[in-house]
Amino acid sequence: MSLNTETLHRHAVLVVDDALPAQGFLCEALEAAGYTVMLAGSGEAALETLALTVPDAMLLDAVMPGLSGFETCRRIKADAALAHVPVIFMTGLSDTSHIVEGFAAGGVDYVVKPVRVEEVLARLATHVRNARASRLAREAIDVGGHGVVMIDSQGRIAWCSPKAAYWLHHFLPEYEGNLPDSFRQRLLNGEIAPHSRLATLEDRSLQARGLGTVSAGEYMVLLEVRNADAAGHAEQARLAAASLTQRETEVLSWLAKGKTNRDIGEILGMSPRTVNKHLEHIFEKLGVETRAAAAALATRALAVE
Prior knowledge:
By secondary structure, this protein is an alpha/beta fold. The protein has helices spanning 5-8, 24-32, 43-50, 69-77, 96-104, 117-144, 162-171, 181-188, 230-242, 246-256, 261-268, 272-286, 291-302; strands at 12-16, 36-40, 57-61, 87-91, 109-112, 147-151, 157-160, 196-201, 204-215, 218-227.
């Protein structure tokens, strides 16, 4: 029996409105566009639904009896398991103050009733696509065990992956949610070397590598734990001498974690053929002939747990 891939990949949308019959035309259009539509007649009902299933997006009325749409959105965004769901407000409130309140509550978009179906579908498709890309990126970071830290313009931690948080707590007993002052100052002054040591514990060191600016005022830092054994140093030197590009380094890292070309392509957003071309360059630079040899070298050199 063959599987219907279109059915398997239908995105789910939760429509929340105290006048659902009036949104029948919108729900029909969503179904026709390939979405699975779930309905809730109040903010309280929406939260009950979200306790059972997590949609890919929400269309949320702002003005409802009981829990308002704004308050419903605030509660959703306060829940780590739901915060990633994009919320699009749809309401008759068109004053600037109401629009500002919608975005302040955590909404990603705001459409005024009576809604124009084509416009809603276009906005929804964009937000679902962006949310999915963001989710895949977070999952790739977590599954890969990378210690990624996002730094704001003041040198403060805006976000960090679970592995980064673990390492910071483990290596820095005084860690209270921010990087050491000395490192922050060097970061703000643009004085971060390719590998800057943050702390040393027994025979391992926590190092930071700047990955550059990712958005206005935000900087990405990759944390790495390195063993101090002689073999590891030798392999690190070999990797450094190879002068791999950032993309080649990413491909090699995922190869060392046992990923196939197809897996690596999906994670990094490239075709398996492009991954294979990167591997050809990596093998040549490292002086190895097989995937296994490259993976073993990378594992010993990076020594990241």
